[in-house]
Design goal:
The complex is a heterodimer of chains A (117) and B (142). Chain A has 117 residues and is mainly beta. Chain A contains no helices and 11 strands. Chain B has a domain of 93 residues: Jelly Rolls. The termini of chain B are far apart. Classes of the chains: A mainly beta (117), B mainly beta (142).
Chain lengths: 117, 142
């Protein structure tokens, strides 16, 4: 069993009079399959990066393109998230529905990793 | 415009022997169009009991590919087996056990693109926030 430690920090000094500055950390157990940080070139065609053979997992995604958005679907045809240029996501995933990605246009690169608990 | 910066690091010293994992990424939260920083936000905390299903935010603003960010953390400390499941667009994406969190850009593509949570075990305490491109408060009932 390995330990995965994700940390999120959010900060903002000028949205409200109250400073936003918080950090959350977790210690997660990873015991099964791993997709190590990988980088792939996308097109507008669907590509499944997370098959339903996975069980409970943690997913990291990052759009490394400067301009093009990447659509993320957790059921086919349902654009659940859109990663704009440079954006990332981290979320627990049940594995019950596959993770499908495609570019909004062109051929951006997606960085991703999956850690099965 | 406001500048809200989100930074993530993911590390592990024992995931793969001889190859420590160190992922780091940072993003300034931008409104749709990625040129203006987000200024609108909604935050809160709540208790979610077993079998209770709640909608965290009002219905989406029907903006196809509109930029929104969602943070949900299960802050429960009483029992590590307590968990909720969360849904985006009527689809269960994952489970948040005590201490788990998620942070994703959310596609508020239509008025039914909701963010929902459901308690599965225990009384879960959660904190949540949404950073928004646009926000109209629900109309008052007449």
């Amino acid at each position: 069993m390995a330990t995965l430690i994700p940390t999120l920090t959010l900060s903002c000094a000028d949205a409200t009079a109250d400073l936003i500055n918080f950090s959350v950390v977790n210690n997660l157990s990873v015991t099964k399959n791993i997709v190590s940080p990988s980088k792939i070139k996308l097109t507008t065609s669907d590509l499944e990066i997370g098959p339903t053979t996975y069980g409970k997992s943690y997913v990291y995604l990052k759009n490394t393109d400067d301009t093009i958005a990447i659509n993320v679907e957790v059921t086919d045809g349902n654009s659940t998230m859109q990663l704009a240029a440079g954006e990332f996501a981290f979320f627990p995933w049940t594995g019950a529905a596959g993770i499908v990605v495609h570019s909004a246009s062109g051929t951006p690169y997606l960085e991703y990793a999956i850690f099965e608990a | 415009m406001a500048t809200t910066t989100a930074t993530i690091s993911i590390s592990s010293s024992d995931l793969m022997p001889g190859s420590p994992l160190n992922i780091s990424a940072s993003s300034v939260l931008m409104k749709t169009g990625i040129t203006t920083g987000m200024e609108l936000m909604e935050m809160g905390n709540a208790e979610i009991a077993k079998d209770y299903e709640a909608q965290l935010f009002a219905d989406g603003p029907a903006t196809d590919n509109g930029a929104y960010w969602i943070y949900i953390c299960n802050t429960t400390t009483e029992d590590s087996t307590y968990y909720i499941e969360y849904k985006l667009h009527e689809t269960v994406i994952g489970r948040l056990y005590a201490g788990d969190w998620m942070f994703v850009p959310y596609n508020a593509s239509d008025g039914d693109a909701e963010v929902e949570v459901k308690g599965l075990i225990g009384i879960n305490k959660i904190e949540y926030s949404m950073f928004k491109t646009a926000w109209t408060l629900p109309a008052a009932e007449s």
